[in-house]
Amino acid sequence: MKIKKILIHNYKMFKDEIINLNEGFNIFVGNNDSGKSTLLEILQILISGKIDNYSFERQLKASYFNYDIRSAFRLQLVQPDIKIQELPSIILEAYFTDDGNNSEYKGTNNELGENCPGIHMTVEFNPEYEKVFRDMIKTRDIYDIPIEFYKVSWKDFGDNPIVFRSFPVRVTIIDTTQKDYSSAVNKFINTRIASNLASDEKVNLARAYRNMKNEFNNNENVKHLNERIEKDERLNNRKIKFGMREDVLDAWMNEVSIDVENIPFENMGFGTQNLIKMELVFKQNSEKSNVILFEEPENNLAFGNMSKLISNIIHDDTKQVFISTHSSYVANRLGLKNIILLHKGKTSQLTNVDQDTMDFFMKLPGYNTVRFLLADKVILVEGPTDELIIQRAYKDKFNKLPIENGIDVMTVDSLAFKRYCELALLVKKNLSIVTDNDGDIQHNIIDKYKKYLNGYGDLIKIYYEKNEALNTIEPSIIASNSKNNDLIEKLKRVISRKGSMMNKTCEELIDFMTNNKAEWGLRVFDSDESIEFPDYINDAIK
Asked: Are the C-beta atoms of residues 155 and 161 closer than 8 Å to each other?
């Protein structure tokens, strides 16, 4: 069974949300505190009844309830005449695809009344405590949601209690933000020992381990140490001595470590350790798990190691994988149509992304798609020079950089402009593109972007130099600063180093700027003097 959607009612930042899911990959993308980790947590609670390997019921807190719902309840408690008709509740549901093999979990016991297999989980007031609760209300001894009077239940859609041990869907969470995966390494060692040693060989090794410990305990140096300790130390007025502890028969396995390419595992770099540990967890646990939860797979991994991890994920198509990430590389490689965008407890999906656009970003995953999707407004430019000039022009006009007003200026290969236009239409994002006319406005601007400039209002705007003779930003800047002698002299000062440009002609300035794009742009950006900017750049930053 695969999860086809989840329903969330009053859990943390989610008030009422239904999220349709993909059978393969689901990529949760959002800014910090947007709900990515919460969605992974919800899946873990629904399928295992746990958070971080501990019973959810035993960790129940008032803070698990939606903030607005909790605040409204607390406000009722301070009113002169307290009237509480219904206490807040949490409802979480997982709707599964019906493969015909798990009919015992099928029914309509869900909020949507659908006839399918699923899990219905509730956190609700236990009516057995109704009298106690009402008495405490009268004496004003209730200050918050009284979770001590609540009960938690998991039932299938046939209204039967869920037994997680026998439920056919299992979940594994791999959190790369955690640094301790030693249990995964120990499990790998133990299983490999168990599968490669016969019973008599394990007995012989256990005996050798005990002999080694016995030899240590009887070492002359240890004996001398214990003689001195016996004279000077007492615990509970009793003699003590040091020695290797006695353990169970197979305790020797816990002392075994592994070498990777002749390097002890504990001596390897943390990034490599993390990659190996995650690979072990993924291999071991995914063998018995249908659902894999990844928390930020890019965390603490170099680009090469992250690529290896993503390859491992991609090549296992038997699992349903859920990933929270800030990485454009992860999102692009796993497919933009699998992205679920989160913002303040609300979700939107990219399931309708154009196939050509998705293929483009999968083949060239270095593009900053996640950065684009998370920005409030975006200006796309062709190169670092254009980015520096846009930033400086904006700062001159508004006395702050664009990003301080939620506007992200991104340098993108012009071949990708149309791909970003497709994403902008899909998520209804304001997008401005500042581009060169390259000497042919009809072909390079009007024909190229006609799909995006008609019928979409002001969502997408293209800004360019109207004079075809000024085919790139360099001649446009020269033209804007050649209207009088003072302007051109100031431009020369700005882009000079020790007066190097002061005696240059306009043609020579253009030649220098064309061959030193980032350099002259940086000099303009850092200058104490402001130059004139072309009309199309001024229009773009308004």
From this structure: yes
- Residue linked to tokens 């490669």: 196
Return the residue matching tokens 């803070």: 63
For 112, the token pair is 């949507």
CA-based nearest residue to 409, from 430, 432, 437: 432
In whole angstroms, what is the distance from residue 323 CA to residue 180 CA? Answer: 20
Long-range contacts at 45-54 (CB < 8 A, ≥ 24 apart): 45/92, 45/121, 46/6, 46/92, 46/93, 46/94, 46/119, 46/121, 46/154, 47/94, 47/119, 47/164, 47/167, 47/169, 47/170, 47/171, 47/291, 48/164, 48/170, 48/171, 49/154, 49/162, 49/164
Classify residue 26 by burial, with Cβ atoms within 10 Å: 0-12, 13-18, 19+: buried
Sign for the pseudo-dihedral over CA of 59, 178, 276, 184? negative
**Each residue of 347-360: pLDDT tens digit?**
877 777 778 888 88
pLDDT digits 0-9 by tens, 256-314:
656 666 666 666 665 666 666 666 655 655 556 688 888 876 665 555 666 666 776 66
Closest CA to 435 of 421, 427, 445: 445
Q: What is the pLDDT of residues 188-205, one digit of tens each?
A: 555 555 556 676 776 777
